[in-house]
Automatic annotation (TrEMBL):
Regions recorded as binding DNA: 32-51
A GO term for molecular function: DNA-binding transcription factor activity
One matching Pfam family: TetR_N
Xref: InterPro entries: Homeodomain-like_sf (IPR009057), HTH-type_TetR-like_transc_reg (IPR050109), HTH_TetR (IPR001647)
Domain HTH tetR-type: residue ranges: 9-69
UniProt superkingdom: Bacteria
Protein name: TetR/AcrR family transcriptional regulator
Keywords: DNA-binding
Lineage: Bacteria, Bacillati, Actinomycetota, Actinomycetes, Propionibacteriales
Length: 187
């Protein structure tokens, strides 16, 4: 059996994917670069050579998650440019719990100036993108973002999204939310 040698870019992508999983599980403070290296199947010095510091790797992970949210919103708006379609896209992202948890860890680590600057900028870009794609008012966008944040927290607590723990209060709360209207099936 022959192994295919990965390029540095491909290996960097594997490390970044492992970082999202690790940071999603333990947060910025609780994650060590050697854990990320182990998950990626590389050495810890290689992780540092690729990304510099743990902080830079965390920022790359947070940026990756925000890129995924933006991409999902753009794709949804390509089918139907309204808040319902973007809500459906976000609901699909809930299946990748670690992505949303990395966002929460980014918010929590925002007291660190370098992390806070990036997280605030990216959150603002997502807010602006929602308004740009849908033409929603500031109030409509605030409600959309607030619902998304609640869903993010509930997904992190494992009471929303796939494989959620069924709890009456969570089911009641989810039942009161207008998450989205499904997009029409593609032909």
């Amino acid at each position: 059996m022959t192994r295919t040698r990965l390029t540095a870019a491909e290996r960097g992508e594997e490390v970044l994917q492992a970082a999202v999983v690790a940071f999603g599980a333990a947060g910025y403070q609780g994650t060590k670069t050697d854990e990320i290296a182990r998950l990626a199947g590389v050495s810890q010095p290689y992780v540092i050579r690729l990304f510099g510091t743990k902080q830079q790797l965390f920022l790359a992970s947070a940026n990756r998650v925000c890129d995924r949210v933006e991409q999902a919103f753009r794709e949804a708006a390509g089918q139907r440019a309204d808040l319902d379609s973007l809500g459906g896209a976000y609901e699909r992202l809930m299946a990748e719990r670690e992505l949303l948890v990395v966002l929460l860890h980014g918010f929590a680590a925002s007291a660190d100036p370098a992390i806070g600057d990036v997280v605030r900028e990216r959150f603002g870009k997502i807010y602006d993108l929602v308004r740009e794609l849908t033409g929603a008012s500031a109030e409509e966008t605030r409600q959309f973002v607030a619902t998304g944040m609640l869903l993010t927290v509930m997904t992190a607590m494992q009471v929303a999204g796939p494989d959620s723990i069924p709890l009456p209060w969570a089911e009641e709360l989810l039942g009161t939310m207008k998450i989205h209207q499904p997009l029409p099936e593609a032909d």
